[in-house]
């Protein structure tokens, strides 16, 4: 009768697979965090650009009250 080796080799294989899964998850989580940070930075830059654009439009109409959007004078 042949010796039974299945019990001794399956545990190290399962452990290696579990470690590989953890490493893969760690790498994926890291890159996900990098992408999220980049998206946050881009969103903040877009918000700042919009804020400055709105301030420029308000400043223009405050400094030039005669040039109203409707073309009439005040």
Give the overall shape: rod-shaped
**What string gives the helices and strands in order?**
H
What gyration radius follows from the Cα positions, in whole Å?
A: 31 Å
Question: How many helices in DSSP terms?
Answer: 1
Give me the secondary-structure category. Answer: mainly alpha
User: Which percent range fits the helix content?
Assistant: over 70%
Overall pLDDT confidence:
84
Distance between the termini: 106 Å
Low-confidence stretches: none
Name the beta content range: under 5%
Task: Describe this structure as you would to a colleague.
The relative contact order is 0.05. Helix content is 78%, strand content 0%. The chain has one helix and no strands. It has one helix at residues 6-63. With 74 residues, the protein is mainly α. The N and C termini lie far apart (106 Å). The chain has a domain at 38-74.
Tell me the layout of helices and strands.
Elements: H1 6-63
Question: Briefly, what is this?
Answer:
The chain has one helix and no strands. By secondary structure, it is mostly helical. The protein has a domain of 37 residues.
């Amino acid at each position: 009768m042949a010796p039974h080796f299945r019990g001794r080799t399956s545990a190290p294989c399962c452990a290696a697979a579990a470690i590989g899964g953890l490493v893969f998850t760690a790498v994926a989580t890291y890159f996900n965090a990098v992408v999220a940070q980049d998206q946050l930075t881009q969103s903040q830059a877009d918000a700042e650009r919009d804020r400055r654009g709105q301030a420029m439009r308000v400043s223009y109409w405050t400094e030039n009250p005669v040039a109203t959007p409707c073309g009439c004078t005040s």
